[in-house]
Amino acid sequence: MDVEELLAREGIERLAGQYHMAGDRGDATAYAALYAEDGVLVSMGDALNGRQAIHDYIAGVRSTNYGGARQPTYLHHQLCTHSIEITGPDTARGKAYFTVYTDCGPDHHGTYRDKYVRVNGTWLFAQRKVDTQWFSPDCASGPGKDG
């Protein structure tokens, strides 16, 4: 592994950390800024194209009640088993597992499948596919409760 690859990996790891911190805070502006201008977020079967669509979706998530269980007062994302493959000087792809904890306990978990792009020296999401595989019956921080 050369220095350029190490720097790319570090930039992508930083991106992942910023993503979770912005999401946990409910900061839709910071969250959307982590995507390329034409970036795509695929979640719950919906594809959100571009920063504005991603921003608007994240801004509305915390105001939605997804099925009657009480809403959590905080979110803490935990990322693990993050694999990164550098595919070009300014492109990469990755996969990671995530678990979200709230004041309700373990809330939901799943897998991210990502495409990354470096724009003006900064790594961003070109595409993130979120596959949430489980939701707790005790809390309601995400869609999927009503089938």
Structure description:
- The chain is of the alpha+beta class and 147 residues long.
- It has a single domain, classed as Nuclear Transport Factor 2, Chain: A (Roll).
- It contains 3 helices and 6 strands; from the N terminus they run ααββαββββ.
- The protein has helices at residues 3-25, 28-32, 51-61; strands at residues 35-43, 46-49, 75-88, 91-102, 105-119, 122-135.
- A hairpin with a 2-residue loop joins strand 3 (75-88) and strand 4.
- The protein is globular and about 50 Å long.
User: Helical residue percent?
Assistant: 25-40%
Q: What is the averaged pLDDT score?
A: 89
Question: What is the spatial order of strands in the main beta sheet?
Answer: 2-1-6-5-4-3
Give the end-to-end Cα distance, rounded to a whole number of Å. 45 Å
Q: State Rg.
A: 15 Å
Number of domains: 1
